[in-house]
Specification:
Elements (H helix, E strand, L loop, with lengths): L2 E10 L3 E4 H5 L6 H8 L3 E4 L6 H16 L9 E4 L10 H9 L6 E4 L5 H14 L5 E9 L9 H4 L4 E11 L4 E9 L7 E2 L22 E2 L1 H22 L9 E4 L4 H11 L10 H4 L6 H11 L8 E8 L3 E8 L1
Parallel strand pairs: 4-5, 4-6, 11-12
Antiparallel strand pairs: 1-7, 2-3, 6-7, 8-13, 9-10, 12-13
Helix pairs in contact: 3-4, 7-8
The protein binds oxa(dethia)-CoA.
């Protein structure tokens, strides 16, 4: 059976940078508090003219170039996002058209910060099942549009950006070895954006609707994240009969440096083997893993044959882990 291998990565960060010091002017917070509690120093913010699809297209073009393929070779487009351009058409359809892909299937996937790990798994399944050979998987977010800029408990956390990968069928020993996904709807109210959904029909003024912004019970979310991610990485290694010391790189969802450190500690992995960019990028939800992955590929940290562990956690609640041989 073929498995899916990442043959190209790309990412895009909007030009505007918002520092912790900038945030000190907006809400009662301090650079020291944000750095100590989250590890974040700055994040990127999309221009008013930039939509989720624009970020996704820019990241995808770089991934396509890195893979050395033509857009017409792509036979499935997947976008993971909590901030799509529109309810429909999907952002994936907009990306497919802009890139000049053929009339191939394209759809969005909603799993909040776990979106990329979920979408990667869907792409892998299409390839394993023989329905696709080359898949474009994107995580793209303009979270700045759903952040409550008056709420210091959340506005310091999030940023905008996109990351993309090209998955291709391979019979080599490289590629995705396993994937484990989970969800616990019982904990849906820990982290949510309630509107616009049909439960909150609202008016044409989307951003005036109550509940259109991120609401999070941060401390409880933090505790569940540390526990479930610890379990997820354990499950991933066990499924591959792998010892933690066989992992070369951990590429975690970049929500909070303390959550990342807790997971690395659970694995007994030194932080030198963890790809971290939360300090410069903040939490970009579904985009965070592919952005971090692209950085590690481009700066030469990831080397062929190495074992890579991805893990993510987010609203839903959702979480999951993927093991790959690079
Ligand atoms: O992406 C996927 C899901 N998201 C996450 O995984 C995020 C998980 N949660 C977190 O990362 C952390 O819970 C936060 C960073 C959001 C908060 O850190 P914490 O250590 O859990 O702080 P806390 O919520 O317990 O708040 C401690 C204190 C509170 O003050 P009092 O009640 O002790 O007087 C907060 O009001 O810190 C206060 N506080 C702030 N102070 C300065 C909360 N936000 C801020 C802020 N600046 N920005």
């Amino acid at each position: 059976m073929p498995r899916a291998r990442i043959i190209g990565t790309g990412s895009y960060l909007p030009e505007q940078v918002l520092t912790n010091h900038d945030l000190e002017e907006r809400v009662e917070t301090s650079d020291a508090w944000i750095v100590e509690r989250t590890g974040i120093r700055e994040r990127h913010i999309a221009a008013a003219t930039e939509q989720c699809s624009d970020l996704a297209i820019a990241a995808s073009r770089r991934a396509i170039a890195a893979a050395g393929i033509a857009a017409t070779e792509i036979d499935l487009v997947l976008v993971a996002s909590a901030t799509p351009d529109m309810a429909f058409p999907s952002t994936a359809c907009l990306v497919q058209q802009a890139l000049g892909c053929g009339p191939v299937p394209a759809f969005d996937l909603s799993a909040a910060c776990s979106g990329f790990v979920y979408a990667l798994t869907v792409g892998d399944q299409f390839i394993r099942g023989g329905a696709a050979k080359t898949v474009l998987v994107i995580g793209s977010e303009v979270l700045s549009r759903i952040v409550d800029w008056s709420d210091r408990t959340t506005c310091v956390l999030f940023g905008d950006g996109a990351g993309a990968v090209i998955l291709q069928a391979t019979d080599s020993g490289h590629g995705l070895l396993s994937s484990h996904l989970h969800a616990e709807g019982r904990l849906a109210d820990l982290l949510m954006v309630a509107a616009p959904g049909k439960r909150h029909p609202g008016t044409g003024e989307v951003f005036a609707i109550e509940g259109a912004l991120i609401q999070m019970r941060g401390n409880e979310t933090f505790r569940v994240a540390v526990r479930t991610l610890g379990e997820a990485v354990g499950e991933a290694l066990e499924a591959n009969n792998m010892a933690p010391e066989e992992v070369d790189w951990l590429i975690p969802h970049q929500a909070n440096i303390r959550i990342i450190e807790a997971t690395a500690k659970r694995l007994g992995l030194p932080m030198e083997q963890v790809v971290v960019n939360v300090d410069r990028v903040g939490n970009t939800s579904a985009a965070s893993i592919p952005i971090a992955l692209d950085e590690a590929v481009r700066d030469g940290r990831l080397q062929e044959g190495q074992t890579v562990l991805l893990e993510a956690f987010g609203g839903g609640l959702t979480w999951g882990a993927v093991v790959m041989r690079w």
